[in-house]
Amino acid sequence: MTPITIPKRIAQNDDLVIIPRMEYEFLLHRNDTDEAEMNPTLKNALKRAKRNLKLGKLMSYGEVGRKLGFKN
C-alpha cells in the first residue's frame, strides 16, 4: 500500500489521504483485537514520531530517498 497525502491547499478542509479500496475495506472492518501489543521500543518510537510530527520535523519522500542514497 502506498498512501498519498494531498496538501491542505488542495483538499481545503483537511488533508486528504488516498488508499486502495481493499486497504480501506480492511481498515473499515478491522477488529481492535487484530492489534498486537506494543513493546516499549515501539511505544518510544511512536512517541518520538508524534512529537516530531507536532514540531513539524518531517521529511518529504524525496528527502528520505536522497538520505538513503537512492537516485530519483
Describe what this molecule looks like in 3D.
- The protein has one domain (4-67).
- The protein is 50% helix and 8% strand.
- It has helices at residues 8-11, 21-29, 40-55, 61-67; strands at residues 4-6, 16-18.
Shape: extended
Mean pLDDT across the residues is 80
The proportion of residues forming helix, as a percent range, comes to 40-55%
Cα-based radius of gyration, to the nearest Å: 16 Å
Task: Summarize the biggest pleated sheet.
Answer: 2 strands, antiparallel
Tally of alpha and pi helices: 4
Q: Supply the number of structural domains.
A: 1
Look at the helices and sheets and give the structural class: mainly alpha
Unreliable stretches, pLDDT < 50, 5 or more residues? Answer: none
Query: Which percent band covers the strand fraction?
Result: 5-15%
Q: What is the strand tally?
A: 2
End-to-end separation in angstroms reads 20 Å
Secondary-structure topology with pairs:
Elements: E1 4-6, H1 8-11, E2 16-18, H2 21-29, H3 40-55, H4 61-67
Antiparallel strand pairs: 1-2
